[in-house]
Amino acid sequence: MAEEAIKLGGKRKSIFMDKVKKLLPEGGNLNLCLTCGACSSGCPATGLENMDPRKFLRMAALGMDEELTSTPWVWMCTMCYRCVYACPMQIDIPALVYEARASWPRETRPKGILGSCDMALRNQSGSAMGTPPDDFVFVVEDVLEEYRETQPAFKDMEAPIDKKGAHFFLNQNSREPVTEPDEMVPLWKILHTVGADWTYGSKGWAGENYCMFLADNDSWEKIVRTSINTAKELGCKVFLNTE
Amino acid sequence: MYQYYAKWIREGKLKVNSDWNKDLKIKFTVQDPCQIVRKSYGDEVADDLRYVVKSIVGEENFIDMTPNKSNNYCCGGGGGTLQAGYKEQRLQYGIVKDKQIKSTEADYCIAACHNCHSQIHELSEYYGGNYSVVHLWTLICLSLGILGENERAYLGDDLKEVAVYGA
């Protein structure tokens, strides 16, 4: 005869996990954990801050909301989804991490990510480096002219901006136009070689989105919408992410 | 982008080849970006990526990491970590990736994702791996013979002077 079951004292206090479950399709399967550890064994963030994906989920199930919403581990996990891929129950731990990020008061979130998001909100570019549309247009035109002049095979090469009806709307990570403009050129050459009909947008050209990493949903959406609306207004058919 | 590179090579619009590397035998591996592969298009796009890479560097000069494709390890540069301020932990995270790359003994890791590119570049320097990190567009143009001397910021000395356009 087994001893009487141990009774846990107090009421279950988890609010955080319940809240996240409501946000996700199938509740993110958050209550299906078999505790097998496949997530943690293949996670490069395991061990950082004495945390790992399985532990994070168990803590959520146990209602340790204060610990979950204060550990800096959520900013070290990249939300790469390998834990979900490895998980036999497809539990969406990264979504839990994302919401834990979102639970931090905005001004307390990592300064670098916050700053990059705020930079992107400063103008219509959406660039984490704050580069205004005019500067982007200038750099593209300047670099293009230089290459047209110095490389005869590319004297007719184009790098269109706001070209109506272009098939591809191409975005551009800010790093190239701002810090290493020559690195934009190989992709232009490829597009020129295959005869692709493409364009950048002067608005929403920047490919990065640090507001997403900041877990600031409204700002994330605002930046994405600027890009998408530009592509739609130009009548582009394909939204093409740069490498 | 990789789907289009692959499509254009298959259609003959990008006439790439690996002749430039026939004698050099420079070895390449490739990082599967989590966002594009595992989180979006799956192994199919990873296969396209490999088709492109093999077409430009030569099949015998490509060495895959293990594990790979959808099962690949994140390099540690995603999710905003490059700007999150936890550098020590980010580099700790990257040990898994650094070891994976080193065990391929490749001279180059192709990273067609900006976050991966920055992170792996830093891993190579920090852990002394001495592998270079390069965008795919650089190698496509190199293979086409249209890569100029100013477009080689991420090529090592072994490729600075190979098939330079206009030289």
CATH class wording of chain B: Alpha Beta
- Uncertain runs of chain A: none
Main sheet properties of chain A? 3 strands, parallel
Number of domains of chain B: 1
Q: What's the helix count of chain B? A: 7
Poorly predicted parts of chain B: none
Q: What is the CATH architecture term of chain B?
A: 3-Layer(aba) Sandwich
Helix-strand pattern of chain A? HHHHHHHHEHHEHHE
- Total number of distinct structural domains of chain A: 2
Given the C-alpha coordinates, what overall shape of chain A results?
elongated
Task: Give the topology, please.
The complex is a heterodimer of chains A (243) and B (167).
Chain A: H1 16-23, H2 38-41, H3 53-61, H4 65-68, H5 82-86, H6 93-103, H7 111-120, H8 133-150, E1 168-170, H9 175-179, H10 185-194, E2 198-199, H11 210-213, H12 217-234, E3 238-240
Parallel strand pairs in A: 1-2, 1-3
Chain B: H1 2-10, E1 28-31, H2 37-41, H3 43-57, H4 87-93, H5 95-104, E2 108-111, H6 114-126, E3 132-134, H7 136-144
Parallel strand pairs in B: 1-2, 2-3
Protein architecture, described:
The complex is a heterodimer of chains A (243) and B (167). Chain A is mainly alpha-helical and 243 residues long. Chain A has helices at 16-23, 38-41, 53-61, 65-68, 82-86, 93-103, 111-120, 133-150, 175-179, 185-194, 210-213, 217-234; strands at residues 168-170, 198-199, 238-240. Chain A folds into two domains: 16-104, no CATH class; 112-240, no CATH class. Helix content of chain A is 44%, strand content 3%. The mean pLDDT of chain A is 95. Chain B has a single domain (2-151), classed as Rossmann fold. Helices cover 41% and strands 7% of the residues of chain B. In chain B, helix 1 (2-10) packs across helix 3 (43-57) and helix 3 (43-57) packs parallel to helix 7. Chain B starts with a helix and ends in a 23-residue tail after the last helix. The mean pLDDT of chain B is 97. The chains are: A mainly alpha (243), B mainly alpha (167). At the A-B interface, helix 5, helix 7, helix 10 and helix 11 of A face helix 1, helix 4, helix 5 and helix 7 of B.
